[in-house]
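Okay, can you check this protein?
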Amino acid sequence: MSLGTVQINKLNLMQGALPSIEFHFLFIGIGTTNPGSVLSVGVETDLDVALGAGDSVLKTQVTAAKQNAGQNWSAGVMPIAAETDWADAVDFAMETTTCEAIVLVDPVADKTDLEAMQTKTREIMAQYMRPVFFMAAARGPNDTETWATYIAAIKPITDGIAADQVCVVPYLWGHDLGTLAGRLCDRSVTVADTPMRVATGPLAGIWGNKPVDKDGVAINMAHLKELDTNRFSIPQWYPDYPGTYWGDCNILDVPGGDYQVVENLRVVQKAMRRIYPLVVARIGDRRLNSTPVSIAENKSFFMRPLRAMAKSVTILGFTFPGEIYPPSDDAIEIVWMDKKTVKIYLMVRPYDCPKDITVNIALDLSTE
């Protein structure tokens, strides 16, 4: 004999929206207003109230970021006392906030600071599973230096450094780092777009007055080219083309590395953030097993973030490409190492991007 039993279960197939923290940067620097607090700021924030009415490097960079990011900009800002170590500030901030990048506005002293930032990215990833990158600043020229002596003085900062999650911006105009950070947070484009993109428009802020050295010589493209060659991230302009723009955001990866420019790093880190909750959801779930049916189903499951990143739009014949190429069937592999250990390999393929364009024009003198 038996009695009828009914049970209804609520299943979670992990089909909902995945969390997004892209375009949200954390600024850290010396400040006397609200020290030790992680502030949330946006386009409507009065920075004189949040960061004090006086001038500071921190306030200057946050203001420049706000001007260049455009609509829907938001950021975290953490003023710290002069004696506070930036690494301690980062550790504190990571307990209460998350971000795509950490912007340290006070100039670095030497290459050991950059090595410490690279190490900190690994610590954050190990503890929080958060992919981040650091944006650092190098000092600007002083009144006793020519451009040659200034460039020679800061070149050792990046010389020989291997840090594939760190970039360095020299303070040539004084608001350079914040400008780049804001340009990377412009939501009219994607994380796959280079800050060099001219169609995004010129840099916002005061750029018409070019800085000069002790001899009164204005900075020119030869100086900027040398800084770029030494892997600093710097602005630029084009002859007979109005406005000031940006060059590459150079990441301090090794020669031949995949992450020498920030857009390559950002698309991979975005994919890492998107796939992490999906992987966690499969822990102990026998729907992921070594049968061919399960592997095929879970390939589709784990490819969902890449398919979303690959979506493009075509309107009136103009195609706006996604952040990456649509993933092919062989862009993912699931390998069972033993009965409980699985390794998943994903391939992210960014689009080509024109940064060096040559036009050849010939004369057609034919009679027809």
Observations:
- Residues 17 and 274 are 10 Å apart (CA to CA).
- The longest strand covers residues 74-80.
- The chain has a mean pLDDT of 95.
